[in-house]
Design brief:
The structure holds two protein chains of two kinds.
Chain A lengths: L16 E5 L11 E7 L2 E8 L7 H5 L4 H9 L6 H16 L5 H29 L4 H21 L19 H25 L3 H7 L7 H6 L5 H4 L7 H4 L20 H26 L19 H6 L1 H11 L9 E7 L4 E7 L8 E5 L1 H6 L2 H5 L4 H10 L4 H5 L1
Antiparallel strand pairs in A: 1-2, 2-3, 4-5, 5-6
Helix pairs in contact in A: 2-3, 3-4, 4-5, 4-11, 4-16, 5-6, 6-11
Chain B lengths: L5 H12 L4 E4 L5 E4 L5 H10 L7 E9 L7 E9 L4 E9 L5 E3 L8 H12 L2 E3 L40
Parallel strand pairs in B: 2-5, 6-7
Antiparallel strand pairs in B: 1-2, 3-4, 4-5
Classes of the chains: A mainly alpha, B alpha/beta.
């Protein structure tokens, strides 16, 4: 990390200016403020203020049954909301001791990896925009749209998905969903290749990003960084590889790592991860075909929210529906910590349960919140224009930052 | 390097902090225990620097409130040994009138915002913290909203009262 610039207060040549970057500024990727002290264009010091869209999710979660917490998780990292949803469902499944069938696991991997691609696409293409190249952004937006169409086919919604249930999915993937998925797998790789070619060897892009905001692995670990920005420094910590959840252990994939932790490396790591995600989706699709095609949830009627048509026509389903919605299900009095690899890093759910209708305490370990704590200290000595690029390379999501 | 078991880990910790480690449990395989406020920084330093254990990664700091207990506020640390791929959860309980804790920023820079968040929501004062201010709530707030004495339920909702369900 660059050292703090020291200026002599009595020097008449030295005059600092204060700049409010945010709370609402086109270059900040959400609503938060950085008060920067500038010597010319160089940042001398900065103070970050966050919490402008704090919505007290942890408090609200203490008053809601497990299912009603799912829509809260959507609204944290809204660029990859299915990962948040499924992370939460897997936490509850761990608590309740539910074993999901293999087909459900692979279906989840497909959705989570699609979400990761959507998340990384936005981050990397916006990084291009921040360095002055808008073409890539417009180009890949179409493929985020294609991913959203797959979500829409599966759960009916696009951005805040509420996809899945405790134990599996609300409905099976239909043939249109699979067709859209196969079309995406066919169309997207050449586009990703072209997108990479547009920026990775681009002289201007390299000059703007190479050696900018370079972070050492020691600093990154000290600030508890996780996800692509930690891996860009050379630390190969990926929750999917280290503590495989949801049958990730069955798949072959690599964990891309960078070499010197600068903005360029973060871009490369995210790009490489998209290729790995495509690999995982291909493998999961192949594995799904060997599983019985009608299984899309675990056989746990006391926890799995029944489909509406069954609730209307089947007494048992009606009773279970009522018990689940009103929070009348029996749950063990214990605590659980479950982590998944979110778009930005380790997304952890710490759930303390007292057997009541709602969690006694629920804490979200939000990667954006933890990653962003280094932003002000690392901006010291940096040019203002570099600090902007640095912010987009961290992939700050204000919803996840504030929760 | 292979994964070290919870038994080995607990043996290593107990060799140094025999009498201080209490309430040991393993919910879903995660070694969890309590320790006193006086020993916490010593323990964290040991876990971080011990060449065998290497808990170099501070995953999270948060807190919990049990208003009925003698020491109601619990501060919870999650550590991860990336080398051995094992996690540990450490809890420290403090009394309501004396909600002070030593800061972990001496060991990890990342503890800075985690402790600010814990202070903001539970009022835990981390002694020695470089910049202990509220982080997500407004500065002039006078309460610590995640404590249990501040319930959230809409008072007009009568359909969710416990007595309707025999509780």
């Amino acid at each position: 990390m660059k050292t703090h610039l020291l200026l002599d207060d009595n020097d008449p040549q030295t005059e600092l200016s204060t700049l409010n970057l945010g709370p609402t500024h086109p270059a900040t990727h959400g609503v938060f403020q950085n008060v920067l002290q500038l010597d010319g264009e160089r940042i001398v010091s900065g103070v970050s203020t966050i919490g402008y869209i704090h919505r007290a999710f942890e408090k609200i979660a203490e008053h809601r049954p497990f299912y009603q917490i799912t829509p809260l998780t959507d609204r944290m990292n809204y660029c990859s909301s299915p990962i948040n949803n499924m992370g939460w469902h897997m936490t509850v499944e761990k608590l309740l001791g539910i074993q999901t069938p293999k087909r459900v696991d692979y279906m989840r991997i497909i959705i989570m990896e699609l979400a990761r691609i959507a998340d990384h696409l936005i981050c990397n293409s916006v990084l291009g925009v921040d360095t002055g190249a808008t073409a890539g952004f417009f180009y890949v937006m179409e493929y985020r749209e294609a991913i959203y169409e797959i979500y829409e086919e599966i759960c009916g919604s696009r951005l805040t998905t509420n996809i899945g249930r405790i134990g599996g999915f609300e409905r099976n993937f239909n043939h249109i969903a699979f067709a859209k998925l196969r079309k995406f797998l066919k169309d997207f790789p050449p586009v990703l290749k072209e997108f990479e070619a547009l920026l990775t060897r681009n002289r201007i892009f390299i000059d703007r990003t190479r050696d900018v905001a370079a972070v050492t692995p020691e600093d990154a670990l000290s600030y508890s960084w996780s996800g692509p920005i930690l891996r860009a420094t050379g630390v190969d910590y990926d929750v999917r590889a280290m503590e495989p959840y949801c049958s990730y252990g069955d798949l072959e994939f690599e964990v891309p790592v960078g070499s010197n932790g600068d903005v360029y490396n973060r871009f490369l790591v995210r790009n490489a991860e998209m290729w790995q995600s495509l690999r995982m989706i291909e493998q999961s699709l192949a594995k799904i075909e060997k599983e019985p095609s009608d299984i899309f949830h675990a056989d746990v009627p006391e926890f799995y929210l029944p489909p509406k048509e069954e609730v209307y026509n089947n007494m048992e389903a009606l009773i279970y529906h009522f018990k689940i919605v009103m929070g009348e299900i029996d749950t063990p009095r214990t605590e659980v910590y479950h982590a998944v690899e979110g778009g930005n890093g380790e997304l952890g759910f710490y759930l303390v349960n007292d057997g009541g209708r709602s969690p006694y305490r629920l804490h979200f370990r939000r990667p954006s919140f933890i990653n962003y704590s280094m932003y002000a200290p690392m901006s010291r000595g940096m040019l203002l224009s570099d600090a902007i690029i640095n912010m987009s390379s961290l992939n700050i999501i204000a919803g996840e930052l504030d929760a | 390097m292979g994964k070290i078991t919870n038994e080995e880990l607990l043996t290593s910790i107990k060799a140094k902090f025999e009498a201080d480690v209490t309430e040991v449990s393993e919910p879903f395989g995660l070694l969890t225990f309590e320790i006193s406020r006086e020993k916490i920084i010593e323990l964290l330093t040991f876990l971080k620097t011990d060449p065998k254990l290497q808990f170099i990664y501070l995953t999270d700091i948060t807190a919990i409130h049990y208003p009925e207990r003698e020491k109601p506020i619990g501060v919870i640390y999650h550590l991860h040994s990336l080398v051995n791929n094992v996690r540990v959860c450490i809890k420290v309980f403090v009394a309501d009138g004396d909600v002070h804790m030593p800061t972990a920023t001496v060991l990890w820079n990342g503890a800075n915002w985690m402790e600010r968040e814990t202070y903001d929501f539970f009022g835990v004062v981390f002694d020695g913290h470089p910049d202990l201010r509220r982080i997500l709530n407004v500065d002039d707030m006078t309460v610590f909203p995640m404590r249990k004495e501040y319930p959230l339920e809409d008072p007009n909702r009568v359909d969710k009262r416990d007595y309707f369900f025999g509780r």
